[in-house]
Amino acid sequence: MMFKALVLNKEPQFSAQIEEVDEARLPLTDVAVEVQYSTINFKDGLAITNKGPVVRQWPMIAGIDGSGSVSHSSHPDWKVGDLFIHNGWGVGETHWGCLAQKAHLKSEWLVKLPSAFTQRQAMGIGTAGYTAMLCVMAIENAGAKPSQGEVVVTGATGGVGSVAIALLSRLGYQVVAVTGKLSEENYLKDLGASRVIDRQEFTAAGKPLQKERWAAAIDTAGSHTLANLCAQMQYGAPVAACGLAQGADLSLTVMPFILRGVQLLGIDSVMAPLAKRKLAWERLGRDLDVMKLEAMIEDITLDQVPEYASALMAGRFAGRIVVKI
């Protein structure tokens, strides 16, 4: 059976286009699914625009996230008709992905759709929102409490940042949003940010130790932004680092760590164990305001994905993109 998919080809030159694919070409796994919705995360944007070395096998069907229903399963945990969520696991990088009508996935990669969300809303969250929840859980586990002061979130209008702000504000934290899109101040305050500041305060190299400002931080930028955040944390405060939008480099000293006990927490969503994924999705079902989630979402079709991926990478988009397959 043929199905539509967004296929990335390397030869004779890079291309990202909708193609008809024979289902017989899909990799052999224990679960086959019908994908109803997908999304475009930062990593998807890198792959679809060929701006980063994301794809490691060619040709590749793009899409690291998907939601839909099981069409065939040889695993006892999954039955035909079960609703699933998929995030990460190298799909869209080394394994054909979910920006497609059909996919073959491994049972241990899948999470049951929480009753709090529709399939569409689950992709409104996607890897970006699930990563935001992992960040929130990490700073909670490191001791961050709402009473300790402001929590700063960088890349605030992006997927991780938007969901992180909505989560933190609902949990009672005072959230400061850092963005290069000051025109989106109303959007960020509607999500729950108490104030919005310009990312230019963080993007240049700064002093090894600076004034203590933040009770916790969630950073999607890396590079000078992350270095400056570490230098500005309160004593013992945690920084959850999950992105590299500014850069993968990190030039800083040990001073924030040995003089203030700052905690730098690395957040990986791609290969996170299934138990942690399930907990993150349970927490999202409890702690994410669905009305705020809806305010983040823009719905598009599969044919529009290349255009929106380019807009995302150019910094022209705020919030979350949901792709109706």
Question: What's the short version?
Answer:
The chain is of the alpha/beta class. The chain is 29% helix and 26% strand.
Overall description:
With 325 residues, the protein is α/β, with parallel strands linked by helices. The protein has 2 domains: 2-113 and 294-324, Quinone Oxidoreductase, Chain A, domain 1; 127-266, 3-Layer(aba) Sandwich (Rossmann fold). It is built from 9 helices and 16 strands. The protein has helices spanning 42-49, 119-141, 159-170, 185-191, 223-232, 255-259, 274-287, 290-296, 305-313; strands at 2-9, 15-22, 31-39, 60-61, 65-73, 83-87, 102-105, 110-112, 150-153, 174-179, 193-198, 216-219, 238-241, 263-266, 297-301, 320-324. Strands 3, 5, 6, 7, 8, 15 and 16 form a 7-stranded mixed β-sheet that branches. Helix 1 crosses helix 9 (305-313), helix 2 (119-141) packs across helix 3 (159-170) and helix 2 packs across helix 7 (274-287). The radius of gyration is 20 Å and the shape is globular. 48% of the residues are buried.
Order of helices and strands: EEEHEEEEEHEHEHEEHEHEHHEHE
| Strand segment tally | 16
CATH superfamily of the largest domain: Medium-chain alcohol dehydrogenases, catalytic domain
The structure class reads alpha/beta
Largest sheet: 7 strands, mixed
User: Which blocks of ≥5 consecutive residues have pLDDT under 50?
Assistant: none
CATH topology of the largest domain: Quinone Oxidoreductase, Chain A, domain 1
